[in-house]
Structures are given as C-alpha cells and as structure tokens.
Amino acid sequence: MTVLDRLAIATLPLIPRPVMRKLSSRYIAGETLADALDKLCELREAGFGGILDILGEDAGDEAKARAVVRQYREAAEGVRERGLDAYVSVKPTHVGLRVSEELAFSLYDELAGRLGELGLFLRVEMEDHTTTDATLRIFDRLRAKGRDVGCVLQSRLFRTQADVTGLGEGELNVRMVKGIYLEPPEIAHVDPVPIRDAYVDRSRELLERDAFVALATHDDLLAERLIAVARELGKGKEDYEFQVLLGVREPLWAAWRDAGHPVRVYVPYGPEWRAYSQRRLRKNPQIFRHVVRDVLGRS
Ligand SMILES: Cc1cc2nc3c(=O)[nH]c(=O)nc-3n(C[C@H](O)[C@H](O)[C@H](O)COP(=O)(O)OP(=O)(O)OC[C@H]3O[C@@H](n4cnc5c(N)ncnc54)[C@H](O)[C@@H]3O)c2cc1C
User: Fold this and answer.
1) How many domains does the chain have?
2) In a domain, 200, yes or no
3) Most-buried pick from 161, 224, 275, 280 (CB within 10 A)?
4) Is 244 in the pocket of ligand 1 (CB under 6 A)?
5) Cβ(245) – ligand 1 distance below 6 Å
6) Which atom of ligand 1 is found nearest the CA of 280?
7) Residues of the domain holding 186
8) What is the pLDDT of residues 92-130, one digit of tens each?
9) Residues 125 and 89 sit within 8 Å (Cβ to Cβ)
C-alpha cells in the first residue's frame, strides 16, 4: 500500500456524507429495493441480466442475520413479480457465518428453498481467506441437498486450484473472480500477472469439467484470453457469461453484449452503502484509485 493510499484511507471517515454518496452513486442502485428493481428493469431494456446484492456484511447476531434473509426473500419476490432475469448473491458473514457456520448454513438453506419455489438461483459469495473453508463446506452441503446454488472462487489464492479439483461431481455454477480482499503473500499471488494467469487456468479447468462459469471481471485483456479459451473448448452462451459491477466500464459490457456474449450486472443497494463503501475502500485501496480516477475523468 502506498503512502497516498494510506492517506486516502485515513481521510475516508472525514469525507462528508453527500460527497461520499456522490462518489458511490454510480456504483449503487439506491437505498431501497424499489430503486434496485428499477435499475434491473433499465438494465433489461439494454440487454443485460442482473444480480441483486443487499449491501452489508458481518451480521453481528442471529436476529440481524435472519432480518437479512427476510430482505433477500422480499427482493426475490420483487424480481419474480416483475419477471426479471436476475438472481440474488449473498455474503456468508451477512447471514451469520461469524456467529456460527451452522446458522449461516441453515439460513442459506431456508433462502435457497424459497428461491427454489420462485425458480430463482442463489450465489454464495466468497469473502476473505479466513472464511473460505467454511463457505465451501456450506456450498457443498447446499449442493448435496439439491439446492440451485453457485459459489465464487478467487484466482489470487494459491489454494484455488485444489478447490476446483475438490468440488464434487454434478452440475456446477462458479463465479470466477480475482478476489477483492488483499491477502498475505504466503497464501496468495500479489502481482497482477500471476493473478490473471491463474484466472485463465482455473476458468479453463472449470469449463473443461462442464461447469457454468460466470467470468466476473472488467479486465479487457483477461477477457480476450477467456473468450479464446471458451472458443477453443467449443463453449457457447449456455456455458459462460460475463459479470460486471454496476457503473464500472459500461462500454466494455456493451461491446461484449454486441459481440454475442451474455452479460450480467451486479446491482448493490441498501441503507448500508456508506459503511460498505468505506470497508471495501479500506480493504482494497486500488478501488479507491479506480473511483477517483473515474470521477475525475468524467467531470
Ligand atoms: C459480479 C462480480 C461479483 C464479484 N464477487 C466477488 C466475490 O464474491 N468475492 C470477491 O472476493 N470478489 C468479488 N468480486 C470482485 C473481484 O474479485 C475483483 O476485485 C474486481 O472484479 C476487480 O477486478 P477485475 O477483474 O475487474 O480487474 P482489475 O484489474 O481490478 O480492473 C480492471 C479495470 O476495471 C476497472 N475497475 C475494476 N473495478 C473497479 C471499481 N470497483 N470501480 C471502478 N473501476 C473499476 C478499472 O478501470 C480497472 O483498470 C466480484 C466482481 C464482480 C464483477
């Protein structure tokens, strides 16, 4: 982390709410479910699928975790009512992983059951490396119960190759990401080149075993390599899609869409936008640089 990064992070709590709101507004649909559903409708008009994420993490107790699940159920019902092509994506600590693994499993299971009735898919997200084992165990158990769920794997972690091999047989839906959490060099790549190379290798392994792979990235050079791998393996629209974050590099999404690649947009919303933005920026100051560069570039 550079001195400037440290300085930027130290001043984050001092940034006035309206300025922070403006900084965040391109990346967050709004505070309410209605805002998020409107955004999904807009995206549908433009030819993009969606993913709903309620901002927040680390539910401190069971009651808070249960409240999060209630909000996700309402979100899913809203998606169904409006007939949108969207699903929900849920962080393990948001449904109580830090309270207990059993609580998180039972809440994911309850939510997946309701989503199953609505015909909707559920993505179990991946957080920092202290949660990886428990998250994969939860994912395995949900899969074993026949729930329509997917997981996320992070190419920066050395362990990910073994995790790909360790995923059980049967239908599989994996979102591949670089990994947003900066991890120690003992367990993770820290330079961009090996993170990219590992991303391509793991995606290839997943496609070779007939998994559906959600290629979540805004890195155009990486995407070119991934498209080449998909072509080489004879994979089509039913085998992969690109996934992107709301507000990040829209021209790239349009180019992928126009070239015939499916693209799904991650739409975060909720009242916890400020705490969430600050935590994310603290964990990975690179994002702060992206945002500042982007805002300056636009103004
Ligand atoms: C749909 C989706 C779901 C994700 N889920 C998870 C998850 O469950 N767990 C996890 O650890 N990580 C997750 N991530 C984050 C991911 O791990 C990366 O941190 C993030 O995608 C940035 O990496 P990149 O591949 O886009 O490459 P980068 O090299 O970081 O970015 C490529 C270019 O995209 C632009 N850019 C990237 N991110 C931003 C941003 N936030 N704001 C402005 N510009 C930006 C910049 O111009 C940059 O040069 C997810 C990402 C996406 C798109």
Assistant:
1) 1
2) yes
3) 280
4) yes
5) yes
6) 41
7) 29-269
8) 999 999 999 999 999 999 999 999 999 999 999 999 999
9) yes
